[in-house]
User: Fold this.
Amino acid sequence: MYDFIIIGAGVIGSSVARELSKYQAKTLCLEKENDVANVQSLANSAIIHAGHNPEPGSLKAVLSVLGNKLYDTWEKELSIPLLRTGAFVAAHNEKEEIIIENLLKTTIENMVPEYEVLTGDEAREIEPNLAKSITKVLSLPTTKVTYPWEVAFACMENAINNGVEFQKNKQVTSIKKVNGFFEIEVNKEEIYQTKYVINAAGVASDDIGQMIEEPPFKIKPRKGEYFVLDRRVKGFVNHVLYPLPSEKGKGVLVTPQVHGNILLGPSSEFIDDKFEASTTDEGLKYIKEHSVELAENIPFNMIIRSFAGIRSTSTCDDFYIKESKTNKGFYYLGGIESPGLTAAPAIGPYLVNEIIGVGNEFELKSDFNPRREPRLEFHRLPWRKQQALLDEDHLYGRIICKCEKITEKEIIDAIHGPLGSHSIKGIKKRVRAGAGLCQGGYCEEKIMKIIARELNISPLDVEYDDPQSKIFKEETKVDE
Assistant:
């Protein structure tokens, strides 16, 4: 019997797991995917917004402004990478300048701590590649960028180290309430019992709710497509560049990334399939057409990949963070779209303390450790530290991913870590092996062999992403 079962291990589920790990409660997090942060948290703009856009007084407004501030604490405690970019919201004419003034009022009402309105010329002195058609910008200095799945990894690793259980490839197939407790069926074969259920299933949160009642909202999945520019473009722009928001969201952005890349996108299209994340000619064309409205001389020749992500837009206009009205002990975290990543550090405490009131039933742990050790990045270390590590293990001297300078020892540590991964994509997410210019063209085979060796499995059993995505089908050359 568990005290809490969290369904979903994206950024939100992982942050809730970490918050619950502070208490003397038996907690389990179930994830249907083969890894943490593999759906909505995997593919987004990675922006920690200032809080200038949400409706004043909404949960989105309150929790995003607080969450932005709390990222400074998470950076210190969890070794989360932050890039303090600031942001420019751009207007191109007098009509759009009126919208900027309205956004300024919202910014002030939401108590965003820093802001400034600049003329187009003033903004171009700071960002020379800003489009010449831009006449005014709302500057938001507290805007930051992070590495979304690193946020989820950090939270879940810290939660695990503080006693939370995590299980992947565990799809919830039914939920029943029996004698005051919940019975959760997983993969149509296992049954878990728990006092409380926290539904953090993202795009599937309404489907999970449907297993026990008519959910209070419906998810309307929205797909966004992106281009990634190679990190050699670092410095092309240093601020996040926003167009004016519309009914489609925040629009096509130009976004510097933690590791030097630049994202262009997203597009925005409502779709029927919640997990259909393919790119389209129309979506990618849309990004190119609209990104040039923000910046000139965009080096499209430096595109190294494109991708798409799904956002869990709901029929509610706000985050839905509430207890079920008919099944006490069942809690919803629904419609956590943008600015969900921003609000994540505040959503966990809000749910745990304000909605559930965990402290009324469970005591705080005296030995809770809020810290998570930073991932070792060998190529960024001083020469003396590198030499000391080489003396300890020669595999620090073997570069596997030349684009990102990732060593064999770093890959081995990612395989066997507290939130270890056994897939090619999982290793890429953890240490960036395969994330560079060649996108794994030269190192993927080597990574596959390291995984097979470390797990003592056949290369035929190595997965690219999920258990159905084996790299090889069969051997074609076998020594007799």
Notes: The chain has three domains: 2-41+149-219+315-360, 87-141+220-311, 379-461.
